[in-house]
């Protein structure tokens, strides 16, 4: 059974950096597009970043473009979200998700497997 699990959340000061990671149990990691989403207090879950199955293509939300970087490690079935220049608005629960099929996707409805989320809190 496919499972995804996040790790690495925590508390960081504004302007700082944090990396969250996601491990996926599967024998065909490259067959999945991997995405990151977040849910800020009082708001709907929103797209943050995604990386294609072969790692060649990435997509970012405008709000994080230039500050966040998504990468995947096929040898370890993991995907990382490096978050730099963090702002208080980045405070949210961050979710990792996997989509069957390697092509990029940015909508929550396109993803098939979800982690339970990890809290990221940015203090101002």
Mean pLDDT over the residues: 96
Main pleated sheet: 7 strands, mixed
* N- to C-terminal distance: 41 Å
Q: How many whole angstroms does the radius of gyration measure?
A: 13 Å
Short description:
The protein has 124 residues and is mostly beta strands.
Structure, described:
Strands 2, 4, 5, 6, 9, 10 and 11 form a 7-stranded mixed sheet that branches. The protein has 124 residues and is mainly beta. It contains no helices and 11 strands. The chain has strands spanning 3-7, 10-13, 18-25, 32-39, 45-51, 58-60, 68-73, 78-83, 92-100, 113-114, 118-123.
Structure keywords:
124 residues, mainly beta, 7-stranded mixed beta sheet, 4-stranded antiparallel beta sheet, globular
Write the layout of secondary structure elements.
Layout: E1 3-7, E2 10-13, E3 18-25, E4 32-39, E5 45-51, E6 58-60, E7 68-73, E8 78-83, E9 92-100, E10 113-114, E11 118-123
């Amino acid at each position: 059974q496919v499972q995804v699990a996040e790790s690495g959340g925590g508390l960081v000061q504004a302007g700082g950096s944090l990396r969250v990671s996601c491990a996926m149990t599967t024998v065909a990691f490259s067959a999945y597009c991997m995405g990151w989403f977040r849910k800020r207090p009082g708001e709907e879950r929103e797209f943050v970043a995604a990386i294609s199955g072969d790692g060649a293509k990435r997509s970012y939300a405008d709000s994080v473009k230039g500050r966040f970087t998504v990468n995947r490690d096929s040898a370890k079935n993991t995907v990382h979200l490096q978050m730099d220049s963090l702002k208080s608005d980045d405070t949210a629960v961050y979710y990792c998700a996997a989509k069957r099929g390697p092509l990029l996707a940015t909508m929550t409805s396109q993803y098939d497997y979800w982690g339970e989320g990890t809290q990221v809190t940015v203090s101002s």
